[in-house]
Amino acid sequence: MCRWAAYRGEPLYLEELVTSPAHSLIEQSHCATKAKTATNADGFGLAWYGDRPEPGRFRDVLPAWSDCNLKSLARQIRSPLFLAHVRAATHGSTRRDNCHPFVHGIWSFMHNGQIDHFDRIRRPMESMLDDDHFNARVGTTDSELLFLLALQFGLRERPIAAMAEAVGFVEQLSLHLTGAARIRMTAAFSDGVTLYAVRYSTDEHAPTLFAAPMGPKGSYCLVSEPLDDEKDTWVEIPAGSAVILSENGLDAAEFNPVRERSLQPEARLEAMAG
Amino acid sequence: MCRWAAYRGEPLYLEELVTSPAHSLIEQSHCATKAKTATNADGFGLAWYGDRPEPGRFRDVLPAWSDCNLKSLARQIRSPLFLAHVRAATHGSTRRDNCHPFVHGIWSFMHNGQIDHFDRIRRPMESMLDDDHFNARVGTTDSELLFLLALQFGLRERPIAAMAEAVGFVEQLSLHLTGAARIRMTAAFSDGVTLYAVRYSTDEHAPTLFAAPMGPKGSYCLVSEPLDDEKDTWVEIPAGSAVILSENGLDAAEFNPVRERSLQPEARLEAMAG
Amino acid sequence: MCRWAAYRGEPLYLEELVTSPAHSLIEQSHCATKAKTATNADGFGLAWYGDRPEPGRFRDVLPAWSDCNLKSLARQIRSPLFLAHVRAATHGSTRRDNCHPFVHGIWSFMHNGQIDHFDRIRRPMESMLDDDHFNARVGTTDSELLFLLALQFGLRERPIAAMAEAVGFVEQLSLHLTGAARIRMTAAFSDGVTLYAVRYSTDEHAPTLFAAPMGPKGSYCLVSEPLDDEKDTWVEIPAGSAVILSENGLDAAEFNPVRERSLQPEARLEAMAG
Amino acid sequence: MCRWAAYRGEPLYLEELVTSPAHSLIEQSHCATKAKTATNADGFGLAWYGDRPEPGRFRDVLPAWSDCNLKSLARQIRSPLFLAHVRAATHGSTRRDNCHPFVHGIWSFMHNGQIDHFDRIRRPMESMLDDDHFNARVGTTDSELLFLLALQFGLRERPIAAMAEAVGFVEQLSLHLTGAARIRMTAAFSDGVTLYAVRYSTDEHAPTLFAAPMGPKGSYCLVSEPLDDEKDTWVEIPAGSAVILSENGLDAAEFNPVRERSLQPEARLEAMAG
Q: Is the CB of D34 inside 8 Å of chain A's CB atoms?
């Protein structure tokens, strides 16, 4: 399990999420209180939108708490839309190419969660990518591949729907090849204009996702864990939800992975049990 | 172009090739005289055989000349068979997973050269791997993939023949998909008992390969460039050759990539020209 | 607080302490149970004695659990005397030069603990070093400086006595300049023949130190925390003790920092209170 | 010898100096044409001024050409005053703390050159620093120490004069302790408002320094080597000069290290010869 924070609104210094709060992302890298993994020390990353359509990105492999570059950049850079991530590795070694956020053109993506049996389904997942998306793969994580698959399935045109298709497809693959599917995720992604997030799990244990207003009116942050102890501030987003932060403020929708009915995990498992 | 050195014989401190000679591998990382790329500063690696069947491995991304760990290890470790490499990146970013030597079970492999149009043929090359070899791929270099392909084609049983098949297959792929094939390589590989090397190019510009006796009788080193200016010591291995260092001493053979006649580069290009 | 393990006896693969046990040093880097700091992810290091008088050394800044080089080296290298360390930074940034063990000629040293008010006494500590020891300082940690001070005070000739003088001197400096002295430490050091360790604190909270026989008769390891749950195996070394592992087996002695009586912390604090 | 570039004027993307020109700083890291050291692969750094009084800073140890973070940051960050540096190590190991620019409060500093016999004069140089400046030292380079010495001597109030005093003092130290003094340098430093540079050598071989207008009227860059082959654009600054870039445009002055007459190198050497 990793930890992340994202923001959309009036330009804000990255440090307001990354280093300053009581439970800042750097603080969480040392000691996350709600996550299953106590330490998120396998690298970190930032993607922020500025003057250009494509985001800036900064990733490195040291624990976030000991990286001087991260502190200085978070203090200097101000952005109206950014994603920040600290990693606890599940799949893929500790190297920059495996650190979130992943970026493709103007799109950025980061993820907290797990795809069970990834080793078994990695290859057919990769086979769905066209040459451009295939050649864009530089790391070995399940997260990067899920991002590329969603891009392949139309993330640019129908962000939430394409992500739902990608997740549903991964579930189907897993059911076909392993007889079971377990995906737990909170992911955030953006094109620099709108910020999207989804919280989802095939079981009852979806990783947490919270939203809170931050700074000027109409500005919000989305986080895997609250950044402080002000319980009234943070709204927990229910599992099976998508959140859309745009110029219209915060919007929410259901998030239902698209899959054929007969392949739903419950149905299949019942069938197997029967 | 990268630089490498390999040794088989009586146990020798790695520093005898890596740091001590006038043109040691570290010295070459700063200023290679025969290589096309003046600087080989995109990481380095060692694979050495000791008490265990599988080799030890040490790789890192700093220039070899500034890595204290490398100097200390090369001074302490003594081995009867080892491979050492300094990298100038052509394909794949600068990270440990892309540094040579690559290791799979008891086998190690390192490479200096280039496969033209690798971006176009990477995918069908990967598609030839069975699940085990596919899942063993952790980096993005052409070299690692060539190694896995040779393993797939039987490197364990017929080392030189399998490498010839792998290289020939890559040429065919390239001809089919790009209308041309250019591969230049000097590669070394080993199972911990025998040390193999090949020098080959589709054109007249095969990277250099030299052999010299070193230390006690029956001990030899193979290098991409001589380690000192004693011209009488170093024998240049001709292009299109394989070298085998075993308990029987140094042996040589032709190295002819296996490909269908009608797909030979010359033929195909003539056909295209016609 | 850091974690460490050291060994002296018949040649042993480093992995027997570093990666294999239930509470191996790598396991402890993720989750130390007795230490105050839960995570020791600010680098690691090895110093081992082999054929040469001076030890080999390997240090790096990633968390120990994610470093492939460490795993491979620990699996390949066998040594009759070695030190291994995982770091949780207190003084000095995360970089190789600040990772233990420190090495000077044939001597190696590693440390777990803290010197309060180090920023106030660093300069006079450095001023005690002669040019050779001063120029040998490459990092910014209190640990490296304590090691150099002990060398300056005669570690080569009278290891335990010189360490006691160094610690006593640091206490005096702290009392003079800050009115208080608090040092907590477990340190191990060696010349490649004998392995020394001390456990000491100015208060009741000396970091733990345990000893256990390991492998063939006459071989022992010393650790900051037991490497497994076999409670009968591990003997806790009392605070105020030195342990000496030599060809004569395990020996223990009192460890009393040498300082002028009138400057003892208790006396001084009483005086101040009076 | 290192390479550097600095800019003051209308806000400019850092990539205009760092990555885009024909002889950009990254290009020079691979192959500097006028410098003595062909490769500047021992790390790099940026310091840029933005909304805050103190500069942002980003430094790392990989060769500049292979660092993805550097490319992304240089493309995103726009600043009215920045310093950029690629390093070829002379004194001090390859680690972030030894990479330029150095920063202290609002001041930044970077340097290309050498101080002969630095090992002999390092200690008395450090002894001139008051506690605050002493404790600010985190690396081991001559450059960082020269910067701290200039701060100690009044860089904040009289930038050029204090630098001249610092350089003169270092010459004196070297003469006293080694009987000779050789300093070659081009340095740039700034408080975020004004950009200063000096070119100086005790002999005829001062490292090069060039100035050119860049972008909107009143904007200039200073570089150790021209960034392109437009010879008419680049004005070479003579040795023994200081350059001041402020809101008044480009100004120049003599740069004469302040030292007692009897200790001038020529005098001293004459005296010794006599």
A: no
> Closest approach of chain A CAs to the CA of D85, in angstroms?
15
C48/C58 Cα distance (integer angstroms): 9
Task: Write down how long chain A is.
Answer: 274
**Ordered per-residue pLDDT tens for chain D, 274 residues:** 789 999 999 999 999 999 988 888 888 887 644 444 567 888 899 999 999 999 999 999 888 888 999 999 999 999 999 999 998 877 777 888 899 999 999 999 999 999 999 999 999 999 999 999 999 999 989 999 999 999 999 999 999 999 999 999 999 999 999 999 999 999 999 999 999 999 999 999 999 999 999 988 899 999 999 999 888 899 999 999 999 999 999 999 999 998 754 444 454 444 444 4
Check if the beta carbon of residue A150 is closer than 8 Å to that of residue A168.
Answer: no
Q: Does the CB of A96 have a partner CB in chain C at under 8 Å? A: no
Nearest-by-Cβ selection for A62 from C31, C61, C68:
C61
Give the nearest chain A residue to C29 (CA atoms).
Answer: A39
Among B2, B31, B99, B221, the one annotated catalytic: B2
Of the CA atoms within 13 Å of residue A208, those in its CB half-sphere come to: 17
According to DSSP, residue C217 is labeled T
List of chain D residues whose C-beta atoms are within 8 Å of the C-beta of residue C131: 123
| Cβ within 8 Å, pair B58-C78 | no
Q: Which residue type, as a one-letter code, is found at position D82? A: F
How many Å apart are CA B129 and CA B111, to the nearest integer?
19
Angle CA C212–C217–C222, to nearest 5: 25
**Cβ-Cβ contacts under 8 Å for A89 (sequence gap 6 or more):** A42, A43, A98, C66
- DSSP helix, strand, coil percent of chain D (3-state; round to 5): 30, 30, 40
A219 touches A8 (CB < 8 A): yes
- Find residues 62-91 of chain C whose CB sits inside 8 Å of chain A: 62-63, 66, 68, 89
To the nearest whole angstrom, how far is the Cα of D114 from the nearest Cα of chain B? 19
Which CATH number do you get for residue C110?
3.60.20.10
| Residue C249 backbone phi and psi in degrees, to 5 | 90, -155
Chain D contacts of B41, Cβ < 8 Å?
A: 39, 41, 63
| Contact with chain C for residue D132, Cβ under 8 A | no
- Phi, then psi, of C123 in degrees rounded to 5: -65, -50
| Number of other residues whose CB lies within 10 A of the CB of residue B46 | 29
For residue D38, the tally of other CB atoms under 10 A from its CB is 16
- φ/ψ (deg, to 5) at B12: -135, 140
| Calpha distance C45→B74 (Å, rounded) | 17
Other residues' Cβ atoms within 10 Å of the Cβ of residue A183: 23
Does residue C93 sit at the A interface (CB-CB below 8 Å)? yes
**Taking CB atoms and an 8 Å cutoff, what residues of chain A touch D73?**
56, 58, 73
Question: Which residue in D274, D259, D113 sits closest to D198, CA to CA?
Answer: D113
Neighbours of A248 (CB within 10 A): 9
Containing structural domain, residue C223? 3-273
Which residue, C114, A137, C60, C150, is CA-closest to B58? Answer: C60
User: Edge-to-edge, what's the strand order for the sheet holding A210-213?
Assistant: A56-60, A44-49, A78-86, A3-13, A220-223, A210-213, A235-236
From D253's Cα to the closest Cα of chain C, the distance in A is 37
Minimal CA separation from B68 to chain C, in Å: 8
Please answer whether residues D122 and D52 qualify as being in contact, where contact means their C-beta atoms are separated by less than 8 angstroms: no
- Spell out which residues of chain A touch residue B138, defining contact as CB-CB under 8 Å: 93, 140
Q: How many domains does chain D have?
A: 1
Question: How many residues comprise chain C?
Answer: 274
Write out chain C residues lying below 8 Å of A38, CB-based: 31, 38-39
